[in-house]
Amino acid sequence: MTTAAARKSGASADQVPSPCVSICTMDAASGLCLGCARTLDEIAAWSVLDADAKRAVLAALPARFAAQGAKARGAADADR
Fold first, then answer.
1. C-alpha–C-alpha distance, residues 29 and 22, integer Å
2. Which residues contact 73 (CB under 8 A, 6 or more apart)?
3. 21: Cβ–Cβ under 8 A, 6 or more apart, which residues?
């Protein structure tokens, strides 16, 4: 959330929203949640992480989703 957006919503710039989308299913192979791409440790620690640590987790998510998508496409191709 940008600082301007944080001010508009009444949220502090240090408040980092959780990426949880309520699809809480862990992928056994990768150890990542299929909904938010976080590890169990990241999910469990989210409420006590500082804003910088949360932003670091968020920054890693796009690459994790891309890797999950590539694995899912590979599995689908194997089924053909």
1. 20
2. none
3. 35, 36
